[in-house]
Amino acid sequence: MTDRDITVDENLVNSDPVSDADRILASKASVSELQEIEASVLREYLLGDISWTPAGVTWTYASASTFTISGDYTSVYTPGTYLKFTQTTTKYATVVSSSYSAPNTTVTILVNTDYTIANATITSPYYSYAEKPPGHPLIYNFSPNMTNVTVGNGTLVSKYALEGKWASGHINLVYGSTTSISGAVSFATPVAAGTYGGAYSSVGNVSMIDTGVALYMGAAVLRIATQVIEVRVINAASTYALWNAISATVPFTWAVTTNPDELDVNFRYHI
């Protein structure tokens, strides 16, 4: 670097990073001076937000997971589109669907526990089709609606994401002294599954860990009619392997002994 800092007029930087680059190159800094700047730093400074497109329209709160836009914008807000907006702080979202009913488009976002739409003015709205737009988390925490499971003082970590029309996620339950499994375990699809053409479909893997003893294999089975994912264990006792429901004692008696037992579920399905 030279002894003097390279000065870039803040007024040269606007919402069009490519035009900004042209103006900066034509400003006070010479080509030789610009070459002394780390390439990665310069690229981040000039092009860091090029993935985000200003919406250019007003987003209006409708619910914690929906907003409206005047006009038909269903071709813009397609499933998997990433969003960024401000309500006091910067928030991020992923589009699940959009629908038009004159005069408004209603955009539905992925429900999660990290970001919700407040009943307040939405400012600085952007959208992106980039694979990983700057700042966006891509993956969200969520609260699964589980059947026959009491978390109690156990630890439940649940995350999921939407890539285009594919929802994928991971649920991990570490048993606590007040955790219980009282019957066949299932959870509601965090975003509605599309039609698969059959009653059941295997959409992921399950691990049931009898800590210090054994690890049992299973499957996450999507039941289309009821929009639930059932947690099944593979029963190898028969001539052919079966998917059996788990319970308080299947495939073992769930408990906290020296180390807690674990239930781990991965899933992926199209919406």
Written account of the structure:
It is a single chain. With 271 residues, the protein is mainly beta. It has three domains: 10-47, no CATH class; 53-128, Elongation Factor Tu (Ef-tu), domain 3 (Beta Barrel); 142-270, Adenovirus Type 5 Fiber Protein (Receptor Binding Domain) (Sandwich). The chain has three helices and 17 strands. It has helices at residues 17-25, 31-35, 39-47; strands at 53-54, 60-63, 66-70, 82-87, 89-101, 104-109, 123-128, 140-141, 146-150, 155-163, 166-174, 180-188, 200-210, 214-223, 228-235, 242-245, 262-270. Strands 8, 9, 10, 11, 12, 13, 14, 15, 16 and 17 form a ten-stranded antiparallel beta sheet that branches. The protein has a seven-stranded antiparallel beta sheet with strand order 1-7-4-5-6-3-2, with no helix packed on it. A hairpin with a 4-residue loop joins strand 14 and strand 15 (228-235). The model is unreliable at 1-22 and 36-47 (pLDDT under 50).
Structural class: mainly beta
Largest sheet: 10 strands, antiparallel
Order of helices and strands: HHHEEEEEEEEEEEEEEEEE
- Mean pLDDT score, rounded? 86
Approximate strand percentage: 35-45%
> Unreliable stretches, pLDDT < 50, 5 or more residues?
1-22, 36-47
Morphology call: elongated
User: Which CATH architecture of the largest domain would you pick?
Assistant: Sandwich
Report the span from N to C terminus: 52 Å
Cα-based radius of gyration, to the nearest Å: 25 Å
Count of spatially separate domains: 3
Number of helices: 3
Q: What proportion of the residues is helical, as a percent range?
A: under 10%
Under CATH, the topology of the largest domain is which? Adenovirus Type 5 Fiber Protein (Receptor Binding Domain)
CATH class of the largest domain: Mainly Beta
By DSSP, the count of extended strands is 17
